[in-house]
Amino acid sequence: MGIKEDGEDGVEKNGIREPLISDHASNKGHPWMVYFTTLVAVCGSYEFGTCAGYSSPTQDAIRSDLGLSLAEYSLFGSILTFGAMIGAITAGPIADLIGRKGAMRVSSAFCVAGWLVIFFSEGPIPLDIGRLATGYGMGSFSYVVPVFIAEIAPKELRGALTALNQFMICGAVSVSFVIGNVLSWRTLALIGLIPTGVLLLGLFIIPESPRWLAKRGRGKEFETALQTLRGKDADISQEADEIQDYITSLEQLPKPKLLELFQTRYLRSVTIGIGLMVCQQFGGINGICFYLSSIFELAGFSAFAGTVIYACLQIVITGLGAALIDKAGRKPLLLVNSKQRTTHLQTL
């Protein structure tokens, strides 16, 4: 299975260029529906951040109310990542089977169930079960939301709209840090239901991914969804033919196997991709996010002031990255980020 980037024009697999959606600047439609659909989808990203940012501001209150030991609360905070791992692994097959919208509904259901279990918890076991469920939904959102956005976004908007996914995650974490210092932990759990509620309602309005519909052979729905995204006056004939040609060519190829990724010709690409993800996680962002309040307290700083400053900086830097990603390029931003992260970790 040969996969390589083809600039901003899509992905090339075994010599076949995959159109994520539109590369045609001649479309006359207005992208307002793309914007609206993206805003609905990134409610899942916001839910991701809400789940990740919950444990830090609520640590003292939950331990005091339920009598949890430090070890019990540490398990509560970290079990989220185990659920997220399962969610991320299973999200791909689910999204391919029932669609991107269907996968987001499944993710939302897990998050709703998890938050309700946390809200009614009176001991460590229900807390862990609820946290595990929200982790599953969070992990599933981490896959399906950026894939959905990439499949509906036109070329000129793809980078910025995809970056909005990360912006909403950081924004939600920051909001949780701030309001978690003034609200009870049970109330904060109920607030976690709001993004999923908005997402579930929005999914009744927005179209399914045209590319997924084409892949499933649902031609009429494919054209309707694409027309909705591009505008009723847009000419989608060339774009539709391009996507259909890709799907037809893809079906004629032998089914790819995971072990093919470890062949010599793919070694460099796989190493870069996995290496970036490993470096991201080993930077310690999850540990900082889950226990930020405690970190500031142990360092002798005000937990409230520290989390507010951290939240504001996170939003500003993420917004700056979203604005620069299409202009400065991915690699320069990665290099700058890596240098800054190395310096900060050495300082700590």
From TrEMBL:
Molecular-function GO terms, alphabetical: transmembrane transporter activity
One GO CC term on file: membrane
Main location: membrane
Pfam families: Sugar_tr
Membrane disposition: Multi-pass membrane protein
Species of provenance: Arachis duranensis (Wild peanut)
Similarity field: Belongs to the major facilitator superfamily. Sugar transporter (TC 2.A.1.1) family.
UniProt-listed InterPro entries: MFS_dom, MFS_sugar_transport-like, MFS_trans_sf, MFS_Trehalose_Transporter, Sugar_transporter_CS
Keywords: Membrane, Sugar transport, Transmembrane, Transmembrane helix, Transport
Residues spanning the membrane: 75-95, 102-121, 133-153, 160-179, 185-206, 270-293, 299-325
Domain of life: Eukaryota
Residue span, Major facilitator superfamily (MFS) profile domain: 33-348
Intracellular or extracellular location(s): Membrane
SUPFAM superfamilies recorded: MFS general substrate transporter
Protein name (record): Sugar transporter ERD6-like 7 isoform X2
